[in-house]
Specification:
2 domains, 434 Repressor (Amino-terminal Domain), Beta-Lactamase
């Protein structure tokens, strides 16, 4: 555990959290033998105190559970405890992952709020729509969240799930015709990304598991999936051949990838298609 960073993240988050957001505090304070109301004779802080977070967690104030955690004296907190604290402090997804990295050295296995996996800030929509080149954003299961007209023309039409398109899984059974050199340039990349995503998530991801089950039912996909794949393969900087959906010409597809804030395990992909001739 990086105790200093961990404590700093919690302290700053606590000092941003308004105690007025928790109307149950006066009763909790009173039951704990503290002054019910803040003001004369009580804490004048507008933000939550360490004791109050312990009370909100359901702990006896005298145990000082949260205070010890914030000071780095509890070096192996449970996932459940961290989630409850992060929820009280209203951490954003990137802050939740920062806290997890400080505690355990790796990103959280799942988002703080599962619905946020599909949350997309409005600014990303106009950013994608304003791109001259094809661009799209997908979530952690490769479901497309937004895309521009150039991407729609390139794929003709834009698939709902890019992983299924790359692997020609239903309802994209005919997509492989758009990927010259699939066995060298597309298949290994897609299957490596799928394997890496499933390995990274400690919890079961049913949508990805369903794709994996379908992969294992296809002999060619199964053989490639069970071979030694490169977990470091990702779309950033990739160059592959692709048939343009509207022009019906083979061209070179260059791609740049990034991670949009607010979409857990999401990807923003910018593409440039150049005809071979």
């Amino acid at each position: 555990m990086d105790s200093e960073r961990f404590g700093l993240i919690l302290t700053r988050a606590r000092q941003r959290t308004d105690a007025a957001d928790y109307p149950e505090l006066p009763e909790l304070r009173q039951k704990a033998g503290l002054a019910a109301e803040r003001g004369p004779g009580g804490r004048r802080l507008s933000y939550l105190s360490q004791v109050e977070i312990s009370l909100l967690l359901g702990y006896d104030a005298s145990r000082g559970i949260y205070a010890r955690l914030e000071r780095g004296l509890i070096t192996n907190p449970s996932d459940d405890l961290l989630r409850r604290i992060a929820t009280i402090l209203n951490l954003q997804e990137h802050q939740w992952h920062d806290l997890y990295v400080a505690a355990f050295g790796h990103r959280a296995p799942s988002p703080l709020r599962p619905a946020s996996m599909h949350a997309l800030h409005d600014s990303w929509n106009w950013a994608i729509q304003g791109q001259e080149h094809p661009a799209y954003i997908s979530d952690g299961a490769w479901n497309v969240l937004t895309y521009n007209e150039a991407a729609n023309a390139l794929f003709n039409p834009m698939p709902k799930n890019v992983m299924r398109w790359m692997l020609s899984l239903p309802p994209q059974e005919d997509s492989r015709a758009a990927m010259p050199g699939w066995a060298e340039g597309w298949g290994p990349v897609a299957l490596s990304q799928l394997a890496s995503a499933l390995h990274e998530r400690n919890e079961a991801h049913e949508e990805l598991r369903q794709i994996e089950r379908e992969v294992l039912q296809h002999p060619d996909l199964k053989a490639m999936y069970e071979s030694v794949l490169d977990a470091r393969i990702h779309p950033d900087g990739s160059r592959r051949l692709m048939v343009h959906g509207i022009r019906r010409e083979i061209g070179v597809l260059d791609a740049a990838a990034g991670t949009p804030v607010g979409v857990d395990h999401g990807r923003v992909i910018f593409m440039k298609w150049t005809p071979l001739t």
